[in-house]
């Protein structure tokens, strides 16, 4: 595992509201003295509202601009173009139907990269980790990165895209450890696959969150739903 080092260039971070991307944004904001912003891509999935809310709160605390792209139809295009489909779009939301990998692979990542170029950023960073590589072994994150950068290059764009955590050899545990040691805010994050008031504590993402916190921090600061009242009571850190 190597040290995270970022070039001092105008930088844009893909922010999902989760632990990894939130830690990445805080590290980039710490190192880079030029323009740093975040971008949230709302694909209309179940937890999008919660993810976006946590992303907004974090950016407000950091005094970092947040670009929000409301683009659920991109998921439809991606699903049609991909066989078998990764995403199913319903009338109100989209949901994962097969654990084939992140929706933000080549096509969607390229879309965000072109947006970054249009907004004037030199660097675009994505917070996937080596744990994600292990989860989706059929996907090569480096190949995705190369494909996106080649597309940008032949299109005359100067924005460069990368996965800093993967390049530095960080897995999910290492990200939390780094956030803890750097005194970053890792509590103001959303992991749950559902969009309720609290983390459900039962979905695969919540279980992974519990495991990571248990191994690296020793205690989990997350408030999990324990009753119907929890689901009805809003509790988002100020």
From TrEMBL:
EC number: 6.3.4.20
Catalytic activity entry: 7-carboxy-7-carbaguanine + NH4(+) + 2 ATP = 7-cyano-7-carbaguanine + 2 AMP + 2 diphosphate + 2 H(+)
InterPro entries assigned to the protein according to its UniProt record, in alphabetical order: QueC, Rossmann-like_a/b/a_fold
Domain of life: Bacteria
GO-annotated molecular function: ATP binding; ligase activity; metal ion binding
Keywords, alphabetical: ATP-binding, Ligase, Metal-binding, Nucleotide-binding, Queuosine biosynthesis, Zinc
GO biological process, one term: tRNA queuosine(34) biosynthetic process
Entry-linked Gene3D superfamilies: HUPs
UniProt keyword DNA-binding present: no
Pfam assignment, any one: QueC
Pathway it works in: Purine metabolism; 7-cyano-7-deazaguanine biosynthesis
Similarity annotation: Belongs to the QueC family.
Protein name: 7-cyano-7-deazaguanine synthase
Organism: Vibrio ziniensis
């Amino acid at each position: 595992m190597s040290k995270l080092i970022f070039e001092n260039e105008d930088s844009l971070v893909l922010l999902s509201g989760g632990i990894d991307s939130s830690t990445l944004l805080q590290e980039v904001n710490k190192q880079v003295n030029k323009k740093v912003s975040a971008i949230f891509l709302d694909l209309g999935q179940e937890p999008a509202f919660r993810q976006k809310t946590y992303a907004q709160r974090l950016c407000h605390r950091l005094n970092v601009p947040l670009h929000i792209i409301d683009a659920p139809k991109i998921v439809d295009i991606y699903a049609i173009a991909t066989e078998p489909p990764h995403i199913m779009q319903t009338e109100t939301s989209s949901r994962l139907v097969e654990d084939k990998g992140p929706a933000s692979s080549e096509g969607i990542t390229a879309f965000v990269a072109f947006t970054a170029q249009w907004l004037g950023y030199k660097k675009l960073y994505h917070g996937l980790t080596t744990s994600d590589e292990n989860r989706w072994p059929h996907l090569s994150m480096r190949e995705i990165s190369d494909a996106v950068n080649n597309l940008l290059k032949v299109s005359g764009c100067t924005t460069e895209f990368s996965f800093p955590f993967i390049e530095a050899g960080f897995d999910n545990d290492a990200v939390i450890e780094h956030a803890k040691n750097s005194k970053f805010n890792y509590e103001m994050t959303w992991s749950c696959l559902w969009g309720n008031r609290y983390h459900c504590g039962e979905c695969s993402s919540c279980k992974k969150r519990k495991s990571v916190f248990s191994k690296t921090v020793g205690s989990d600061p997350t408030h999990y739903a324990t009753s119907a009242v929890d689901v009805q009571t809003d509790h988002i850190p100020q």
